[in-house]
Every structure is written in C-alpha cells, then in structure tokens.
Design a protein that fits this description.
This protein has 385 residues and is an alpha+beta fold. It contains 10 helices and 10 strands. The protein has 3 domains: 114 residues, Butyryl-Coa Dehydrogenase, subunit A, domain 1 (Orthogonal Bundle), CATH 1.10.540; 110 residues, Beta Barrel (Butyryl-CoA Dehydrogenase, subunit A, domain 2), CATH 2.40.110; 144 residues, Butyryl-CoA Dehydrogenase, subunit A, domain 3. The strands form 3 sheets. It has a 4-stranded mixed sheet. A 4-stranded antiparallel sheet has the order 2-3-7-6, covered by helices on one side. A two-stranded antiparallel ribbon has the order 9-10. The protein is globular. The site of coenzyme a persulfide has 21 residues, from helix 6 and helix 10.
Length: 385
C-alpha cells in the first residue's frame, strides 16, 4: 500500500495553495462582507486551469484525474469557502453532466467556454418543495413538435445568475413511467432563452461571495435536441453527478478544517494568557491534537474515495461517507478554532468567524447529513427507507 501522492499532485497542491494565499486571501473577507461575486478572481482561477480539471483536452479541459480536482478544491477551501464553492459547483455540477452525458455536439458547443472560464453553467435540481426529496420535481417539460416547453422553478442554484452564466441543466418531469414513477429528464436551457429567468439570491449566512440563484421557467421553449442523454434518465444522471459532487463538498470540508487548524495552532502558540501561550494548556493542546487526528482521517477517507472513482470502481457509499465525515470534521474544527480565538474568534476581522459560518452549508448542500446516512445505510444492507 502506497500513500504517497504523485509529483504532479504535489506540484498542483503547491501552485493552488500559493494562488489561494496570494490572490484569494487578500480579498476573501471583503467580498464576503459585501456579498459580492468576484469576476476578477474567477478569471484568475480560470487562468490557473481550475475549470474543466478532469475534462479531456479535446474539449478544452486539463485532463487530470479526479484526485487532482479534489486537491485543488481542498486548497482553495483552506483559504475561502465561497471561491471553493464556485470551483466545485462549476466542475462537478455545471461541467460534469455535460461532459459525462452530453452528445458530441453538446460537448463541443458548451464545454470549451466553460473550461476556459469564459462561461459558467448551473445545475437545476432543487425546487422549493423538492430538496432532500429530489425526485419529487414539479418542473415539467412537454414536447410540442420540435420543442420542449418548460414550466416550473428551481432554487439555491450555484453559478446560475452571473453575467457569464451561459445556461443550466434542468431536471424536469417529462411524463410517467410504466411503474407509476414520474419520468424525469435533464434538459439544457441557454441563458437568454425567452421564458427563462435567473435571479440572484441574497441574505445568505454562508458562501456569501458565491453566486446563488432562483430559476423560473414560464412557457420556456427549447429545441428537442436539448435533451441531455436518453429521455427518462434525468434522475439517474443527477444522482450520479451528485456522487462526484459529494467528493468536492468533502474536499471543502477537509480544506476548511485544515484552514481552521492552521489558524488555530498559530494563534494558540502566539496568544498569551496567565503569562504563557495558551497552547501550553492541555485543554487547548488537546483540541489541536483532536483536530489534527480528525483531519488525517478525513483526508484518508476522501482520497480513498477519489482513488475508487479514478479506478472506475463503485464509490457512491464512500462518497457519502467522505462528504458526511469531512463536513462534520470541519464543524468540530471550526468550533474549536473559534473557541481557541476567544472573543476575537467572534469578530469578522478573524477568518475563523467566516469559516464557522461557511461550514454549515457542507452539512446541507448536495444532500444533507441525514441523506448521506440514508445512502450509507442502504449500501450496508440496512433496510432504511
Ligand atoms: N446513481 C445513479 N442512479 C441512482 C443513484 C446513484 N447514485 N442513486 C439512486 N439512483 C436511482 C435508483 O436506481 C432509482 O432508479 P429507478 O427509479 O430507475 O429504479 C432512482 O434513482 C431512485 O432511487 P431511490 O428509490 O433510492 O430514491 P429515493 O427517492 O428513495 O431518494 C435519496 C434517495 C434521498 C438518497 C435521494 O433523493 C437524494 O440523494 N436526495 C438528496 C438530493 C440532494 O443531494 N440534493 C441536493 C442538491 S444540491 S446540488
């Protein structure tokens, strides 16, 4: 068993880390405060090759493995959750479905601009009344001659309302199956299509400088060729996409936990109370020891799940485990980090305040912790409904 990373992985980690420290850290706090999506850093992340990481060069991607992508997200998240969210959502959810399920024509039409960062793409699954119960989608698409007519709405869709968003993949009910279940299909809708509106959502507690949108479809007509893959495969495509996406949320948990640890250990060694650094008190040193141990476990679990994915093995269970565990490790690390910073940890001037808020999304987005436990339970033979 060899736990070492390849030199390519190490070089990638170093370059993304130095980019995040030099380009994201100086602006992250202010962007969070202003709840502002930065097109400038988006462009710089694109120049670094952070979009289309696992996509073949034929479509403008970097042709790296999934572990590379996960390391990149981890390193961005070590500095800022919002920027990591932009990268993770774009690669896993925006680019992923087009790359894995799109026709040659669809891939050629959309992927090059998404991989170069000139454009972004949204993943329209969640609806106001279909969150965890994702297959209960009410958005409908009816075939009328050569066009799909879409009606409905989606909510909490990352990257879907920027000025460079070129479209979204929408899950819609296209009929009923023979077994009585709804027939769900994925359809591509380009920005600017009449009847399609994307509105930015504000007032978020977390990921405040990432773009989140509500989508509305009113008699929205798209060509029938905009169907993604076979009709009726939409829910499977979405679930498969989320398996990969959950690894990137796990990477955000791991990177965020590492960011909390780095700040906490530095602060605890510098901050003096009762005439000595607070790290010299066992109550504090033990918190740091627990954080380090859990981060190590999280990294091993996540990288193993990536290894399974990179070797084309089944990885749904491990993705759910990694997503659940890494997000909960970040929960404990953010909590310890704020506690170690005392009153300062409650102030926006200290990054741990932002990490504490950003963490919460990881236990909710791309499947709540409860949904991850359902997925794991079903994989281990429990008759969990
Ligand atoms: N890959 C491919 N297909 C999958 C799959 C996967 N990982 N998991 C389930 N499916 C398929 C099943 O095979 C089943 O197919 P058929 O209906 O053709 O037999 C179908 O999807 C429904 O599966 P299941 O019956 O298990 O679905 P449930 O309604 O019981 O829901 C949960 C299962 C709750 C796990 C699922 O709805 C889910 O993950 N919800 C959370 C959604 C989510 O993460 N939303 C956040 C989005 S943020 S971008």
């Amino acid at each position: 068993m060899d736990f070492s990373l390849s030199s390519e992985h190490e070089i990638l980690r170093e370059s993304v880390r130095s980019f995040a420290e030099n380009e994201i850290r100086p602006v992250a706090r202010e962007l969070d405060e202003r709840e502002e999506f930065s097109y400038e850093t988006m462009q710089k992340m694109a120049e670094l090759g952070l979009f289309g990481v696992f996509v073949s060069e034929k479509y403008g991607g970097q042709a790296m493995d999934y572990l590379s992508y996960i390391i990149a997200v981890e390193e961005i998240a070590r500095v800022d959750g919002s920027h990591a969210a932009t990268v993770a959502a774009e690669n896993s959810l925006g680019i992923g479905p087009l790359y894995y399920f799109g026709s040659e024509e669809q891939k050629k039409r959309y992927l090059p601009k998404l991989c170069s960062g000139e454009a972004l793409w949204g993943f329209g699954l969640t609806e106001p009344n279909a969150g965890s119960d994702a297959s209960n989608s009410k958005t409908s698409a009816v075939l009328d001659g050569d066009e799909w007519v879409i009606n409905g709405s989606k909510i909490f869709i990352t990257n879907a309302a920027t000025t460079i968003t070129s479209g979204v993949t929408v899950l819609a009910k296209t009929g009923a199956r023979a077994d009585g279940k709804p027939e769900l299909s994925c359809i591509l809708v380009e920005s600017g299509t009449p009847g399609f509106t994307a509105r930015p959502m504000h007032g978020k507690m977390m990921w405040r400088s990432s773009n989140t949108a509500e989508l509305y479809f009113e008699e929205c007509r798209v060509p029938k060729e905009n169907l993604l893959g076979p009709r009726g495969n939409g829910f499977h495509q979405m679930m498969q996409t989320l398996d990969g996406g959950r690894l990137s949320i796990a990477a955000m948990g791991l990177g965020g936990a590492q960011g909390c640890f780095d700040r906490a250990v530095r602060y605890a060694n510098e901050r003096e109370q009762f005439g000595r650094p607070i790290a010299t008190f066992q109550a504090n040193a033990f918190k740091l020891a627990d954080m380090a141990m859990e981060i190590e476990c999280a990294r091993l679990l996540l990288y193993k799940a990536c290894w399974l994915r990179d070797t084309a093995a089944a990885f749904s269970k491990e993705a759910a485990m990694a997503k659940l565990y890494c997000s909960e490790v970040m929960y404990r690390c953010a909590n310890h980090a704020v506690q170690l910073h005392g009153g300062y940890g409650l102030m926006k001037e200290y990054d741990v305040e932002r990490f504490y808020r950003d963490q919460k999304l990881l236990e909710i987005g791309e499947g709540t912790s409860e949904v991850q436990r359902i997925v794991i339970a079903r994989h281990i033979g429990a008759k969990c409904l």
